[in-house]
Design a protein that fits this description.
Elements: H1 2-64, E1 71-77, H2 94-97, E2 106-110, H3 118-123, H4 126-133, E3 139-143, H5 163-177, E4 181-185, H6 204-217, E5 221-222, H7 224-239, E6 244-247, E7 259-265, H8 267-282
Parallel strand pairs: 1-2, 1-3, 3-4, 4-5
Antiparallel strand pairs: 6-7
């Protein structure tokens, strides 16, 4: 009986040992398969990460490749160009939207301010501040006219025959002396239509004076008045409303009855005027055009 018991024990032990070996083998195969899947998933994730990084790097490279060095563009003008810090109110200047079209290599300093004319900009010391910040190789875009036209305000009025061109000529000389480049732009168009739906071009004398100064000084001129007036005339009286400020009643304390403003731009109008400037700039051979990143948003 002892012999049979020993045989039974040996047989049972062998059975358990074989089962353990088979179980271990199964576990090893399972672990290997899981490890293989994990490595494959890791490899795929790494490949996707590399592809994503490559795409980002490629996009950054595409945006920065054409530009030689970081420079600064200084904007000089009135409320139609200036930055508007009160974002709860819909008014925007086209200079505020211009960075959306330009390369990040270009730093844009917007010196434009509400209610300023060439005369008031100088008298308040704003032009001197700009000159103190201006470096060789920088760009300056100058656009005045809306407030120069206000004969009832001696602090701002600059007649288009003498004072206005004299200030523009001073600006050109000062910028040139600093080794920077100036571009003169005429004022953007007001949205003033006659009763029969014809656009009134109310800034022509100042636009012509700006063009004449640019030609005499041999500096680039962007005919923003003609371009923007042509655009508004083509849009027509009803559709052109979309680009200017229309405030409903009982929303802003300052305008309890609402406000209709056909001079100042909303965000869509500011973006459109900036686009018009960018496309006109691209049509020139001016070095600033090399910093245009896109002409649609």
């Amino acid at each position: 009986m002892l012999r049979y018991s020993l045989v039974s024990v040996v047989a049972a032990t062998s059975t358990f040992t074989l089962a353990e070996l088979q179980s271990e083998t199964v576990l090893q195969h399972t672990h290997a398969a899981q490890s293989s899947k994990s490595k494959l998933a890791s490899s795929n994730a790494h490949e996707r990460t590399e592809q994503s990084a490559s795409k980002v790097d490629g996009e950054a490279h595409r945006k920065t490749l054409p530009y030689k060095k970081p420079v600064t563009l200084h904007l000089v003008g009135d409320s139609t160009m200036s930055d508007k810090p009160l974002l709860s109110y819909p008014e925007r200047g086209w200079g505020q939207l211009l960075p959306e079209f330009m390369s990040p290599n270009l730093t844009i300093k917007n010196h434009a301010a509400n209610g300023r004319s060439t005369k008031r900009f100088v008298d308040e010391g704003r032009w001197q501040v700009l000159l103190s910040e201006l470096s060789e190789g920088d760009f300056v875009v100058i656009q005045f006219g809306h407030n120069d036209q206000k004969q009832s305000d001696p602090a701002r009025y600059a007649d288009p025959q003498n004072a206005y061109p004299a200030y523009l000529n001073q600006f050109v000389r000062d910028v040139d002396a600093k080794g920077a480049s100036v571009i003169i732009a005429s004022s953007i168009c007001r949205r003033h239509f006659s009763e029969d739906g014809v656009l009134k071009r109310t800034l022509l004398t100042y636009a012509d004076a700006a063009k004449k100064v640019a030609a005499q000084s041999n500096v680039p001129f962007i005919p923003m008045n003609a371009l923007t007036c042509d655009f508004l005339a083509q849009e027509g009286e009803p559709k052109s409303n979309h680009y200017f400020i229309k405030v409903p009643a009982d929303l802003y304390t300052r305008y309890p009855d609402g406000k209709t403003d056909d001079t100042h731009l909303n965000v869509v109008g500011a973006a459109k005027m900036a686009q018009i400037f960018v496309r006109a700039l691209k049509a020139t051979a001016h070095p600033l055009a090399d910093y245009v990143y896109r002409d649609t948003l």
